[in-house]
């Protein structure tokens, strides 16, 4: 493609129009990780689900999503970002249709797993497309900030949408994906830029090891949270550790590993990914805990819970919108550490003041909004840290690593937090069901507050030389078409 053709394409398809196409489906894929949480009681009653089956409606999506992110991050570079984005969108829509038609549990679980697979294709490809649309600098930071902000608020908005729609029919939470997906596929084919492809191949053994390890680890922790540590969960955990060792070995010896070694030498990306695990855990786990608080402790119906929850996505959107301006004035490590400290404060207040009775505004809405504001700052900054100054052949892999740390790490963290909360609840036989559930939620909130504090300290340490090792950015140099 000549430079004249590039300019013509940009004039015909302004970057922010392309951005809107990419962000729309990305918003849906993240929202679908949480949209079912508040609809679970309706699904459980209609389909006759037990505790384990109910948990797997959420977990099947997360396991498929987290388990394949690293693989599709690399595939995105090799197959072309636009190609994988369109394929992932089509699969996500087909899976949503399957969920919307489901009238028994196996169909719903299969649809949820396929949704997760489609989302894993879309996310790294979407980030890579954005980095191709905007040159390194303020415009890219604004785009990444808005993109990650939308990803952050999608989860709490999913809880609100799920509550409102499930009061009518829980199938509607999946049907609403279809018209958006059709529009995205139509506009994406006409507006998204042809993507640059890297030359190489996927390390099949490393990809299988990484995917299997993440899936089995998440399965083991989820199963342990449901039924305790059984032979099945123990075997899955052992297999996950074994496959993780195989993956590490393949990273050392494979000619073209799943995570390129040059990317792992990029200190800011690797440090940002490690911190993103903490941010993802705080996001998914806190959403789950507070949703259970509203339903199991305060006993709100879905519509009331959704209305009570409204300040949370609004506060997170505010934090996300402020983050790019804060990044223009302060170092990313300062903004990220500040966001984590604000989260810690909000989580401590939630642990201290949430209760079976009392003011829902003072005890829940205000501290939850404080936490959500800090989360908005943290999510945006983490995305910027992970994906800035990455050369074109590695943007898909960097996006996959960032998203895997965010969603995959968050899924594992959610499993650990759920296991901790459930074990605490199960040990309180002398309390009412509401107070027993609250005891487990308080322990989980204290653990999350500690994780936020540790994350803030690690941010100051890991990112203290954040600008010293950036490679030369060549994101605008053409090297082929996808």
Please tell me how large the radius of gyration is.
21 Å
In sequence order, what are the helices and strands, one letter per element?
Answer: HHHHHHHHHHHHHHHHHHH
- CATH fold descriptor of the largest domain: Growth Hormone, Chain: A
* CATH class group of the largest domain: Mainly Alpha
SS content category? mainly alpha
Q: Judging by the overall fold, what is the CATH architecture of the largest domain? A: Up-down Bundle
| CATH homology-level superfamily of the largest domain | MFS general substrate transporter like domains
Number of strands: 0
The tally of domains stands at 2
Mean pLDDT: 79
Terminus-to-terminus distance: 11 Å
Q: Beta fraction of the residues?
A: under 5%
- Characterize the overall form: globular
What's the total helix number? 19
- Give unreliable regions as ranges: 1-12, 467-482
Characterise this structure.
The protein has 19 helices and no strands. With 482 residues, the protein is mainly α. The protein folds into two domains: 397 residues, MFS general substrate transporter like domains (Growth Hormone, Chain: A, Up-down Bundle); 55 residues. Helix 7 runs antiparallel to helix 17. The N terminus and C terminus are likely disordered.
